[in-house]
Amino acid sequence: MKPWAARLVTYGVSGGLAALAIAFARPLPDRRPLAEVAGLADTWEEHVDTVASGETIGEVLERGGVTGDHARDAIDAAIAQRLLDPRRLRAGTRITFGSAPDDSVPSQVSLQIDVDRLVRIVRGDSGWTARVDSIAWSTDTVAVRGKVRVHLTQGIGEAAAELPRDARQELAYAVAEVYEFRIDMYRDVQPGDSFSVLVERKRLPTGVTRLGNVLAATFTNGGATIEAIRLLSEGKAKYYDQHGKSLAANFLLAPLEFRRISSGFGGRRHPVLGIFRRHQGTDYAASSGTPVRSIGDGVVISAGVRGGYGNLIDVRHVNGIVTRYAHLRGFARGVRAGTRVAMGETIGYVGQTGLATGPHLHFEVLVGGVARNPRSALQSKAGPPVAPSERAAFDALRAR
Ligand SMILES: [Zn+2]
């Protein structure tokens, strides 16, 4: 190499290090890799490794060329900042070693401790220092529109092709939760129902995608349309329908969370256990041990074995409503006659005690001692309206 060329390279690197020092002295202007910010992108070298099962941080560092005192100081820097617990280093953690051309030892080690967080351990003039860098999620909104052919999970899965598989499943769960006081997405949904959902999508530069909030939705179930508009009220998100009434009410419609219902059926009625003639309730297929929740505030009337029902819980609510949960594997701790339970509280676990051919929950709503269609029996208790002070915000959101 000609002398002037060597000098240029030296200037280039020391200029880069100066920029590096400046970059550390103030918050990074953006989230580009440090090397790029420091102007080292052309000469900076990185290599990526992963932590193997049972491997110590020292062993991984050594493999990356950070040995002896360097390794000890680098680890100490991260521990001192409580950024790293070397005993809890997960197998599969990505670790990146960065070196400038004249480095005999890598000058930067990054551990991907979470999808959106990196621990950076950097060697400077005064030794190794450590800090955490958050990787910024970018958020946009996605509109998903479609029809149910089989069940909710299928419908949303087909309509949200632009989302990864996990996110599509999560969106089905989220929609079921938005409507959990108005539509039982397991029992009530039928082919031909249609929906549209506006949902936040959060993405990392690495391509990792997560769902954010459902901002608005429309669901047409059996010809009746219910809108859901998300509104922040005193820091809490609530959903309101097109009439400005809260979607929340005194009763949940389903005694199992939609996400807990047997995924094999994807939120469709069990083909064998489903509602049949002279059957007094709804059967939810779910694996044994799935938590069963009380659909409303109430008092346990009885919790024990009763004939073909097997382990049975009856809960008394307001307005002469009693809910019944049968074939349970067991009862939640402390649930017995006289126990007060809250809406959504776990009272027992799905099983197949009594006359049951497989694990499922048999659920009934009784009014004045007579089994009734849960939806019509519970529906009249609509939620409170939008507060007058929030009406303007609601109207503005609806208009969007
Ligand atoms: Zn049944």
The helix/strand series, from N terminus to C terminus, equals HHEHHEEEEEHHEEEEEEEEEEEEEEHH
Q: Count every beta strand, where a strand is a DSSP E run of 2 or more residues.
A: 20
The CATH architecture assignment of the largest domain turns out to be Roll
**What separation lies between the terminal Cα atoms?**
64 Å
Helix content: 10-25%
Query: What is the CATH topology classification name of the largest domain?
Result: Nuclear Transport Factor 2, Chain: A
SS content category: alpha+beta
What is the count of distinct domains?
3
What fraction of the residues are assigned to beta strands by DSSP?
25-35%
Bound molecules: zinc ion
Shape: elongated
CATH class of the largest domain: Alpha Beta
Unreliable stretches (pLDDT < 50, length at least 5) are 1-32, 264-278
Helices, by number, come to: 8
Mean pLDDT: 84
Rg from Cα: 29 Å
Q: Describe the biggest sheet?
A: 7 strands, antiparallel
